[in-house]
Amino acid sequence: MRSWAKLPGRDVFPSVVRACTHLKELRVGECVHGCVVKFGVENELYTGNALMNMYAKLQVSSHARYLFDEIPQSNSFSSRRSNNNDDNNIPSVIPQAGSGEGRMYADLTPIFSSRTSSLVNNNNAYDVVQDSEIGVDDIRQETRNELIRSEKSHFDFLSGRRVKNDVGFDSVSKIFQMMPNKDVVSWNTVIGGNVQSGLYEEALDMLREMSNANLKPDCFTLSSVLPVFARHVDVSKGKEIHGYAIRHGFDKDEFIGSSLIDMYATCTRVEDSYRVFDLLPEKDDVSWNSIISGCVQNGTFDEGLRLFRKMLAANVKPVEVSFSAILPACAHLTTLHLGKQLHAYIIRMGFDQNMYIASSLVDMYAKCGKIMTARWIFDRMEVHDSVSWTAIIMGHALNGHASEATILFENMQRDRIKPNAVAYLAILTACSHAGLVDEGWNYFTSMSRYGVSPDVEHYAAIADLLGRAGRLTEAYKFITDMPIKPTGGIWATLLSACRVHKNVELAEKVAKEMTSADPGNMGPYVLLSNMYSAAGRWKDASKLRTNMKKKGMRKPPAFSWIEVRNQVHGFVSGDTSHPYYDQIHEALRDLYERLKHEGYIPETSEALHDVDEEQKSHMLHTHSERLAIAFGIISTPAGTTISITKNLRVCVDCHTAIKFISKILGREIIVRDNSRFHHFKDGNCSCGDYW
């Protein structure tokens, strides 16, 4: 503004001073004070009050007192002067400056020595008392009591800034109940305050009372209560609000529209979110971000990316929350090229130090197999919170760096960040993937020390830890002794371990438990059928598959994909539909000959069909991950890294073959399956053949 030779208006200096106060930038604030004097507005009411507040909060009380003494105009913020009463000459902001108990209490006491009623009409004084923390509990309570006794019902008292702690909101509620005339604005304030305080049922009760008082909710009321229905996943109540909005013409409002989109998306009704979004006549960044976030939250990642591109085409500029919403889609789809483009855009926009965006970037790079890049971003962050720590710990866990994950977990605690449930899940995953049974158990038992109660996912992680280590009986006992009812997912974890360790007898027992816990899940049928096939029990496998068909169950197809030149190419086992089919299969034939020369022997037990060995070998060579790797070989320069993603667990034979391929071609091959990353290099895998 100054470089454009624009003179600041009367509201500019107070705003800038408040910003300095919030950021605790005393030196900058003093420079602004100099500009205030230069422009001759030091005696302007709001500017003087803002400067006093800044100096007081930044503990330069002498400056604050000097400014107060220099203000020629009496006002309710700086003073409640009356007939030379010295007690009333003390400004409400001054007591906030003292940091010591004695000084603060001494500064406050004279104000109340006569009577707290002198503060009743001074809202700013009330703010100061509410913010005080040392030795003034009785004064705070007296102030609230005086305000309530005075039946002060001005709505400015009921503003959102009063609803900043539970005690403050209690006071607001009491005053609201005493108000003889309650308008829509006051109802909205209390309803919104209940929502902000997590009192969702109370908010709904207030909405009903408002209707009984013959007051019609407005757009602010609706936007306040919609998150309640989202939290309770009560789409029927949300639809009632939606109907009310349509009848009263609020549905075209962008703010209401965005709230409806969020509500439907949270209730997993993405199609309804689309309809609301499509009917909005004007779409701003809030509505775009709401629909994109809804898609990503519900697993429709491709649609989220499509809408993000559409938003850019509509000339709607992404804001910080836009990137926090879309980066998880890149992470899930492992679209590294697009993720890098977004990262470059983020840097150009100056958003790279935003904590939430930086954490999303850490997660995205880690899930695309670029753990070193993820670590570089993490190390450059100025501040780390539990989200960023958890993202980097989980990233190392999934990429096979268990020792580094444990070091980071300890560093997080040294940084005085309390581990939460997600952080514990990350470190347990690291221990599970590395076979660190004792370490994992120690972490699990330490959760109570931080007040974290294990949930289903933590129990599943321990079951997985024991199962991967081959301690199947111990894992079974752990699950049956759990204080919570085992889910189908936990039994599936143990069933997978039974398959890896070829324990068919226990697998049959676990499959029954899994079917009982989750009758509609086809997982136990598929896994047990595969185990029967691997053991040569073809009749048992055929019987299970027949039962699956009778129940209308179909095994999910295995598929893999690879991103080449900003385009994703997908493959299923035995795929012949790709435009480069001939070149892909030629590359596979060449690879097979070279693999045999290096000593590779196919693990034909992984071919789950009752056919001869040659046919089994051919089936293995056309698994989806091998097709994706072959396409990567013919489509990228020699020596470059090949990264693919598979929706299911990579089979033992493919794992062995890819180790050979990485050695023969001198390439690093990164395979992300449904549980972890495998970094193949020079004939070895980062998982240590433990997955």
**How much helical structure, as a percent, in the residues?**
55-70%
Characterize the overall form: globular
Average pLDDT, rounded to a whole number, is 80
Physical arrangement of strands within the biggest beta sheet: 2-1-3-4-5-6
Structural class of the helices, strands and pairings? mainly alpha
**Low-confidence runs (pLDDT<50, min 5 residues)?**
1-6, 73-136, 146-167, 607-617
Number of helices: 34
Whole-angstrom Rg: 32 Å
Number of strands: 6
Residue fraction in strands: under 5%
* Major sheet summary line: 6 strands, mixed
Report the end-to-end length measured between terminal Cα atoms.
Answer: 60 Å
SSE arrangement:
Elements: H1 12-23, H2 26-38, H3 45-57, H4 61-70, H5 101-114, H6 123-131, H7 137-149, H8 166-178, H9 184-196, H10 200-212, H11 219-231, H12 235-247, H13 254-266, H14 270-279, H15 285-297, H16 301-313, H17 320-333, H18 336-349, H19 355-367, H20 371-380, H21 386-398, H22 402-414, H23 421-434, H24 437-445, H25 456-468, H26 472-480, H27 488-500, H28 504-517, H29 523-534, H30 538-550, E1 559-564, E2 567-572, H31 581-597, H32 613-621, H33 624-635, E3 642-646, H34 652-665, E4 669-672, E5 677-681, E6 684-685
Parallel strand pairs: 3-4
Antiparallel strand pairs: 1-2, 1-3, 4-5, 5-6
Helix pairs in contact: 1-2, 1-3, 2-3, 3-4, 8-9, 9-10, 9-11, 11-12, 11-13, 12-13, 13-14, 13-15, 14-15, 15-16, 15-17, 16-17, 17-18, 17-19, 19-20, 19-21, 20-21, 21-22, 21-23, 22-23, 23-24, 23-25, 24-25, 25-26, 25-27, 26-27, 27-28, 27-29, 28-29, 29-30, 31-33
